[in-house]
Amino acid sequence: xxxxxxxxxxxxxxxxxxxxxxxxxxxxxxxxxxxxxxxxxxxxxxxxxxxxxxxxxxxxxxxxxxxxxxxxxxxxxxxxxxxxxxxxxxxxxxxxxxxxxxxxxxxxxxxxxxxxxxxxxxxxxxxxxxxxxxxxxxxxxxxxxxxxxxxxxxxxxxxxxxxxxxxxxxxxxxxxxxxxxx
Amino acid sequence: xxxxxxxxxxxxxxxxxxxxxxxxxxxxxxxxxxxxxxxxxxxxxxxxxxxxxxxxxxxxxxxxxxxxxxxxxxxxxxxxxxxxxxxxxxxxxxxxxxxxxxxxxxxxxxxxxxxxxxxxxxxxxxxxxxxxxxxxxxxxxxxxxxxxxxxxxxxxxxxxxxxxxxxxxxxxxxxxxxxxxxxxxxxxxxxxxxxxxxxxxxxxxxxxxxxxxxxxxxxxxxxxxxxxxxxxxxxxxxxxxxxxxxxxxxxxxxxxxxxxxxxxxxxxxxxxxxxxxxxxxxxxxxxxxxxxxxxxxxxxxxxxxxxxxxxxxxxxxxxxxxxxxxxxxxxxxxxxxxxxxxxxxxxxxxxxxxxxxxxxxxxxxxxxxxxxxxxxxxxxxxxxxxxxxxxxxxxxxxxxxxxxxxxxxxxxxxxxxxxxxxxxxxxxxxxxxxxxxxxxxxxxxxxxxxxxxxxxxxxxxxxxxxxxxxxxxxxxxxxxxxxxxxxxxxxxxxxxxxxxxxxxxxxxxxxxxxxxxxxxxxxxxxxxxxxxxxxxxxxxxxxxxxxxxxxxxxxxxxxxxxxxxxxxxxxxxxxxxxxxxxxxxxxxxxxxxxxxxxxxxxxxxxxxxxxxxxxxxxxxxxxxxxxxxxxxxxxxxxxxxxxxxxxxxxxxxxxxxxxxx
Lengths: 182, 661
Hints:
By secondary structure, chain A is of the alpha/beta class.
């Protein structure tokens, strides 16, 4: 699955963007890259929707919390019973409403609470992501990650990394419906 | 419009330290439906819960949002509190502002902002919540055990001893399974038959247990609490009511050339036979493939010999249908076929045996009457080589990737039994590793090596060749780093075990998954090891993974306890968050049916009202007892007819909208 590699991220980053930012940078350390600044001078804060399955990833996120592992507050979690409950339309809706990134989290393949749910997720999201370029939206704004209930640290690091990736990509202007913006 | 109350928890300083709870309370007041919002130090405490109950009554709330810790922590607590105040428990939504907010963010402004967004999302979802009522279903107070080996017998005895009826379905003519074939058992060397046969007799005599031997499960429908199972009892050609088990028919039978499966094909048996002397039930069966009467029409000696007039050549298969509340799978294992291990001369030389065949040779009721003889010439062997891990822990594509777990111990046992009877025989064991975790196991292995003088060589055998009437074993000693050539009279191969091939068909009937090695998958590898992913179906013994007899018996007991927990209930309360199909939208395409892991979706021809007209359509129906609420079907549905209660499309969309506002 699209585990975004560093080279992918760099390829999509603006030309002058610093690429040596530490992955575990504190939440309020923002990278001021051209185009990532809004008119009022405030740094770009992406809006990120993170879907988590109830059994593994949501519990992983809980563990990140109880271990006090920080990741940017830009990430907002929505709980679903299984990653296979996530309709690709939810993701498109989020982009349409102005989300800058959407990440789907499920149990590791083979560990699904419902045995086969995340296999469906894997196929569906591969299809959706391949369609995103066609729609004119960078597919790096989406990702599928497998996070188990024991991987609190991994959840936090995946979120940090994803937020960083979205910050480099900048605001989602292509699919966002301007009528949805205030 | 739903009247909503919002309760923001401080969790002492856990939340209030980073989130400005008062600001959250104020910020959500303008949200649609919110008529009341407040904060409290510990929402989960009795004081907090009573504040919720009071507010529900005072403001006639239709739903509540609790902004507190993870729903995995206190969702049940708050649902109960709401229910106590007369609210449907599913009209409670939790915004997780502790684990997902206050504990991970340092900046108070940022954390407060996020808490407000999470709370808004919960309010948006709650506005679309509907009261949900879990379905109830009855429980048939009877269990079915599939497989009559030690696992099945023990499970059935434990259930029956607790006072519930159990049926055992066994495909062979007798119960007992693989354990009945064994000579001695490790690490105590007590004889397998001595400890197994009393259990077989006890099962047969138990008033709560019915045995269906020489029978197979043909069809399963239904769900937890009420499975309908079709059992085919194959024709034995012997009337069970009349037969007294005298065995006269077996003596008179002229066809004595059929391969004896109980001796792993090392001996012959008659066409009418009892698998072994202590078989339960002690009832012969005619093997129609081998019987002269059935093949040529010209015999009938057994009928003449039978004084009880029990032989019935006309007997036909019988099919019965029974109902069960729970099903236990105990389908067992077999040693894998060694066809692809030709380098060991298994198919060419009668002196190369699998361990189970060797077990039969050691056994007093086996093909050699218990004397250790070479099958090629009937002479006593001078040297025996055991080769371990034949097909186990293999990466050559011919074998199994897993460790079969029991081979190290039974090889030590067989080596010890040989040395005990015949100290002059040279015994060599080739191993990759000797794995002996278990009570008194390592002591047992060391006794074989040290006290009995069994030679253990770390290394694998490359080839076994026939050489001047003996066998030459070409191997490598890894510790000494040298090639070995050993002359042997017998070679015993510890063949990997594999699940019984019949398990696949039964697993498919019950929608129980198998892993890549065809072992049944448990519901959770650590916390639910004896439950299958299908509710009401449990696992016992080798069908779940390699294990020895003590472990099998322990797991059989655990499966029985789970069955008893189920059967002791009068009603099963389901999870109301299940899929629901809108029959006016469903186009009957069956996309959902194919991917449901629980077989919970069926199709029915149904009269449906569409735009005022009555139409007959093929529509999806969800069985609420079988559905576990994963939601896979909702996404697959092309017409949007399928939805998941508690996590509807509109609810999740509303959450997305609230977050992206």
